[in-house]
Amino acid sequence: MVNLAAWGRHIVENLRARAVRSPDPELDALTAELSGYVPPHTPDDNYLGFAVPLRLRCAEGELRLLTTLTSFATAVDVTPPSSRLRSSRGDPQPSCTWRRSCRRTRTVRASSERAQM
């Protein structure tokens, strides 16, 4: 896992925010336990807050998975400056290459298994 600290903190901080909105002792206990597993992380200027990719690296390359935490609620305090959404688009090519490589590997394995039958 390439970015355990950033991804883990994203999950833990969102759990903490949920616990503030809906207090629950079991959620507090889960958040406390998970916090102990996640290394410290200080977000940089590119941190969006609402979506952090989980980056997994293997011999074939890197795979980026996106975890989103969505909540449907009524906006209470929305002002034009706070409603501005910052976004950046990463390069999807590494993930695409990794998926194609895995697909080729599975195809080759399946072909060789059929040939052995």
Query: Number of DSSP helices?
Result: 3
What is the averaged pLDDT score? 76
Radius of gyration: 20 Å
Q: What is the string of SSEs from the N terminus onward?
A: HHEEH
Helix % is 40-55%
Distance between the termini: 37 Å
Pick out the low-confidence regions. Answer: 82-88
The secondary structure category is alpha+beta
How does the overall form come out from the CA principal axes? elongated
Main sheet attributes: strand count, strand direction, barrel closure: 2 strands, antiparallel
Total strands: 2
Strand order of the largest sheet: 1-2
The fraction of residues assigned to DSSP E strands is 5-15%
Q: What count of domains describes the coordinates? A: 1
Q: How do the strands and helices of this protein lay out in sequence?
A:
Elements: H1 4-21, H2 25-37, E1 51-58, E2 61-68, H3 93-116
